[in-house]
Amino acid sequence: MDIQLEPQAAGRMSGEELKKLHERMKKREKSRRLRKLGARFGVNLIVSVLVILPLLYALSIAFMPSGELFSMEMNLLPKAPTVDNFVQAFAKIPLFRFILNSFLVAGCITIGQIISCSLAAFALSFLDFKGKNVIFMLIMATMMVPGEATIISNYLTVSGWGWLNTYKVLIIPYMTSAMGIFLFRQFYLTFPKSLYEAAKIDGCPNLVFIIKILIPLTKSAIGAMAVYTFINAYNMYMWPLLVTGTEEMRTVQIGISMLNSVDSQSITMVIAGVVMVILPSLLVFILGQKQLIRGMFSGAVKG
Amino acid sequence: MAKLALENVRKIYKNGYEAVHNFSLEIEEGEFLILVGPSGCGKSTLLRMIAGLEDITSGELWMDGEIGNYKEPGERNLAMVFQNYALYPNMSVYDNIAFSLSVRKKDKEEIDRKVHETAKLLGIEQLLDRRPGELSGGQKQRVAIGNAIIRNPRALLMDEPLSNLDAKLRTQMRVELAALQHKMKTTTIYVTHDQTEAMTLGSRIVVMKEGEMQQVDTPANLYDAPANKFVAGFIGTPSMNFFEAQAVREEEGVLLLVGEHRIRLSGEDAARLRAHGADKVWLGIRPEDIAVSAPQEGRQTERRPGWKEGLLADGNYLEVLITDIELLGAEKLLIFLLYGKKYVAKVPAETQVKTGEQRRLYLNMAAAHLFDCATEKRI
Predict the structure, then answer these.
(1) Cβ distance of B100 and A192 shorter than 8 Å
(2) CA-CA-CA-CA torsion sign (A201, A205, A209, A212)
(3) Burial B291-313 (b: 16+ CB within 10 A, else e)
(4) Most buried of the four, A42, B73, B223, B327, by CB within 10 Å?
């Protein structure tokens, strides 16, 4: 049987009709995209408000006179904002000194860990020697031991050396970390080995290789490691509490708890202190994060 | 000046795997030596041992009469070009080329002069300020070569340097590499799995298989007189056809029985086979030595020396079934079936053949190779 083909097949439209069709489809697509965007924005907004609300509330309390906090009304924002709490906190404890101490200690620990961990990881990933895997496993095994388990013996050791109440007792025990070695090693394992071999054939010593090639190319790992280590060191509590007793050696996390003494309890003042303590670590994170992302991108796209 | 020699070199990895067995070879000054073989044959391991990136388990590496086994890679005065170029991405092209000189703390002006000289030689002068990430594959390859040749190494080691390039660029770089080596006269050891690269570049080729040297010879000799069945099958594309044959001695010459086909062998081949005394042999015929028709007198069908004479000898044909045809342009590949096995013939494109056709294919017995079935060595 023959099938008659219609000479006027579908799809033949005048220019005007075609234009209308285009416009209609474009509109539909646009509204769909807008709806999607709105939904995504909404979800993001809800989650971020949930996360940031406690922080914002703390910030608001820091500016409240204490009378406002202890009222029956719901006070989300201070009605009569005051900086009294901050002034009081500064008067009560040497907060600047504490922050300075913390920065010094955390900074030294960060630099120390980056140097020691990257060198150890270099040896564990690029060099070939007997017992390499055993050593790596031993290092990993130390991660299984909780810090609290060794804290007493560490304390006895450093006190035996007469190191209590010094900066070195806060810094030196934390100069390296298994976590850092692991992080760097994993990163170095993805580093093209032929670059190391090329450098070796070019007659480049290991240290020159690390400084001139490895470090510039692993900035992102170093950045991540630096932020992680700094914030961890800044937040240290147990060890500084144990080994420092004098006011001038105290780090900020210990210092801030001094505000919360029994005889002068003022929550607004404590919160004001806490807000000030959070600021530097937030700042480090924000600055570090930028560096981190830049580093990550330069490494991710293969050049 | 730069003579390298390997003597009974072996490499056994920690897990007990022996990658290279007793390898001995002398590499002459200015030579372009190719190490070729399928993957896992130990060619890269050998190169890395020469470079000092792998320890030599036993045996000696001689460099200008000195034992080189225990020298650090940087002290051997060798340069290496890696498959993935191994350029330092954080440095400019200039610094990449200059790197080996600058770590040796050479004079700045001298470095500058040499970098420009090298860049000019390779045609990358305008790229000196760029980063490797901004370069194309071919340009990266040139920079890697520049980094290697700038300090006039004792020998240039290349580990599959062209395999990351696309086909067109590869051919172009191949020609340039050959010209460069010709100009610089640097001893070059070049590893590849691509036999076309090996045949076109090398002045001598080492064919390797499973850590053992199969044959060292010039490209022409490898093609015309392969030492064993492996070399014969490895060199040449498409690879050589091997027919299992029974040798029957006659008064004059030898008769080879390939299934029901009787192929007469005469002259030197027959004499050699007689002297050798093997009964079962592999008859090796290259695809280009097979034709669909016997050549007629007066027609220009000679493609290789001895072609006509070889074909005219009587009874040197096979009755086969053509199963596939691949057109390559000027030539056609005929895939044919004989006693359940597939073989290939290369014929001019204008040849009239159809798939599924029964055809008589003629063998150029003057270019035939015979291999002992037991030892696989050439007879």
Answers:
(1) no
(2) negative
(3) bbbebeeeeeeeeeeebbebbeb
(4) B73
Assigned fold of B241-372 = OB fold (Dihydrolipoamide Acetyltransferase, E2P) (2.40.50)
Total CB pairs under 8 A between chain A and B? 66
* Section B13-38 average pLDDT: 90
Q: Which of A202, A207, A212, A220 to mutate against chain B (most B CBs within 10 Å)?
A: A202
Asked whether the ipTM of the predicted complex exceeds the cut of 0.90, the reply is no
Q: Per residue in B3-16, pLDDT tens?
A: 889 999 999 988 88
pTM, entire model: 0.77
Residue located via tokens 């074909």: B311
Residue A276 to chain B, least CA–CA distance (Å): 40
Q: Report how far apart, in Å, the C-alpha atoms of A286 and of each of A33, A48, A98, A294 are.
A: 31, 16, 22, 13
Q: Do B88 and A203 touch (CB under 8 A)?
A: no
Shortest Cα distance from B365 to chain A (angstroms)? 48
In the numeric block, which tokens belong to residue B369? 């190779």
**Class in CATH terms, A89-298:** mainly alpha
pLDDT in tens, A220-231: 888 888 888 998
**Beta strand pairing call for B4-12 and B58-63:** antiparallel
Q: Best mutation site among B78, B80, B97, B140 for testing chain A: the one with the most A CBs within 10 Å? A: B80
